[in-house]
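To start, an entry.
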Amino acid sequence: LQDTQGNGRTIREHKVALSDELSAAIRAYAKQHEVSPAAIFHAAWALVLGACSNQQEVVFGTVMSGRMNGGAGVERLLGMLINTLPVAVPLQGASVADFIIEVDRRLKALLPYEQVSLAQAQKYSAVGSDGPLFSAMLNYRHTELGETDSDAQESDIQALGAQERTNYPFNLSVNDYGAAHVFSLDLQIDEQVEISRIADYVMTALSTLTDAAHTQPVHALSVLPADEVTRLLTQGQQSLSYDNTACIHQLFE
């Protein structure tokens, strides 16, 4: 999934709400370890990307608001200041607690550079200009539960529909509903990949990170849900049984 110049036609969308229990666990973990909930979601996304690409270090884009270091009055500036910058996450040599703390540190370290263009970031990387710096992205956004456009409601304007798309083929948007203490996920992924499975991987990664012992090494964590593990093991046993039977037939022949 390296094509970042697409028009979004092959992107499929899947939405899922986190349970109250998992949302509470994420909030509690963030408070206990003094990290942002965003760091936990970025850490989970890194685990999923590492598992899917078989890499020990992953790079993906993270969406910046563009207004955190804009100085006095930045909240009154017109226009979109949103930017996307790369974040590199190593998946080896750290405990779960240290891993999430390191992800949190790397996200905070990006803040002074939130207005740097992606082209400039790629210029300073070892990646040539002929390929994408990353093809996966995470957008952590704060929103109100059931948020609507009150002005449109009070007018004669009728909303017929809306569609959100990006040219990146592997995307996760996290909705943080703040006071409601719950989260939801919105995945937009190229049709080559079974999107519901990726959603399951993200949910499993979140549960694993918040449930795992703090000293457990990150590389020992799995993003596979229990039902997929069972299915893989069953298929493996069936395949092994078939191979053994074939070998026995060959011996007697």
Q: What stands out?
A: Residues 246 and 252 are 10 Å apart (CA to CA). The longest strand covers residues 57-64. Confidence is low (pLDDT under 50) at residues 148-152. Helices lie at 20-33, 37-53, 96-110, 118-123, 150-154, 195-211, 226-252.
